[in-house]
Amino acid sequence: MTIQALLERCLAMPFAYADTPFGPEPICVRIGKRIFAEIYFTRAWVTLRCEPQQGLQWRARFPDHVKRGYHCPPSQQPYANTVVLDGAIPDEALLTMLEQSYARVLRAMSRAERASVLSSVPEG
């Protein structure tokens, strides 16, 4: 999967939108205020959220292509994986990681945050 295709896939998820709070990179894909994907076009990698056990499983399965979140503080590293997008990881596995990241962020939201996200969707 190309990095552009991954970005498009992220943006196709319900209530997802792109943001660039840190400059041109990374492109942060969010639900509400929470980031579930950080896409680095110049480095060809993405950082995705994960449950700690899932993160360990992905790192063990693809040790040369999935690492702990490279830019995350140590306390957050178990909850993020940085994935190299060079074609070595099958699309199916990458999409599963993306879906897990999205689900983790949704689960982490408070009821009020979820309600805010749902109410921000324009009607029509």
What's the assembly state of these chains? single chain
Structural class, by secondary structure, is alpha+beta
Which runs of at least 5 residues are low in confidence (pLDDT < 50)? none
Shape: globular
Write the topology of this structure.
Elements: H1 3-11, E1 16-19, E2 27-31, E3 34-40, E4 45-49, H2 52-61, E5 66-68, E6 80-84, H3 91-108, H4 111-119
Antiparallel strand pairs: 1-2, 2-3, 3-4, 4-6, 5-6
Features:
37% helix; globular; alpha+beta
Give a quick rundown of the structure.
The protein is of the alpha+beta class. It has helices spanning 3-11, 52-61, 91-108, 111-119; strands at 16-19, 27-31, 34-40, 45-49, 66-68, 80-84.
Protein architecture, described:
With 124 residues, the protein is α+β, with helices and mostly antiparallel strands. It contains four helices and six strands, in the order αββββαββαα. The protein has helices at 3-11, 52-61, 91-108, 111-119, and strands at 16-19, 27-31, 34-40, 45-49, 66-68, 80-84. The model has no long low-confidence stretch (mean pLDDT 90).
